[in-house]
């Protein structure tokens, strides 16, 4: 494998030693071993990588130099938000009042409102993520059986022993 003369063998080893990012360190180590004359298969065995990865790493080093071995994921800003800050402000204002059909706000209701008022069609995931980022949390009443007898439940709570004194899986004995 041919390695370009961007750095000497000693400079490559220094880069391996001083690299703080583990991805960058791993890549410099592969190039260092390639510069020493090892084959892609031998380097793959040492670095616990595939031979294809070794070949691509050396090819990138040859083409771009030491800068090509940096982990560029840290500079990736990610996808731009689905709603602009102004649209998010409008959503927050809408959430302060009741939904158009009354009741409580739900993800599907908010999604429909965003589509109707802002003209943007979003799936539920970005809606729930937006609600989470705005500090909202899911609040739903606990389910109750339609035929539940409230008086019988209260009587049971008063007569049954505390959970700490019960036997069985929840009692811990």
UniProtKB/TrEMBL annotation:
Pfam families: HTH_29, HTH_33
Compositionally biased region (Basic and acidic residues): 146-157
Coiled coil: none
Disordered: region residues: 64-86, 142-173
Record's keyword annotation contains Glycosyltransferase: no
Sequence ranges assigned to domain Winged helix-turn helix in this UniProt record: 101-160
Domain of life: Bacteria
Chain intervals with Basic residues compositional bias: 163-173
This protein's UniProt keywords: Plasmid
Protein name: Winged helix-turn helix domain-containing protein
Organism, as annotated: Thermus thermophilus (strain SG0.5JP17-16)
């Amino acid at each position: 494998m041919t390695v370009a003369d961007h750095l000497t063998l000693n400079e490559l080893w220094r880069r391996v030693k001083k690299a703080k990012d583990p991805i960058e360190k791993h890549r410099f180590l592969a190039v260092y071993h390639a510069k020493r004359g090892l084959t892609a298969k031998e380097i793959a065995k040492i670095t616990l990588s595939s031979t294809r990865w070794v070949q691509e790493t050396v090819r990138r080093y040859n083409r771009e130099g030491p800068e090509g071995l940096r982990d560029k994921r840290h500079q990736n800003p990610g996808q731009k938000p689905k709603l602009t800050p102004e649209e998010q402000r409008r959503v927050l204002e809408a959430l302060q009042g009741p939904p158009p059909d009354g009741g409580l706000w739900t993800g599907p209701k908010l999604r429909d409102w965003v589509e109707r008022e802002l003209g943007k069609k979003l799936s539920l995931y970005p809606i729930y993520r937006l609600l989470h980022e705005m500090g909202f949390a899911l609040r739903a009443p606990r389910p109750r059986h339609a035929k539940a007898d409230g008086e019988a439940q209260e009587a049971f709570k008063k007569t049954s022993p505390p959970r700490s004194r019960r036997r069985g899986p929840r009692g811990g004995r």
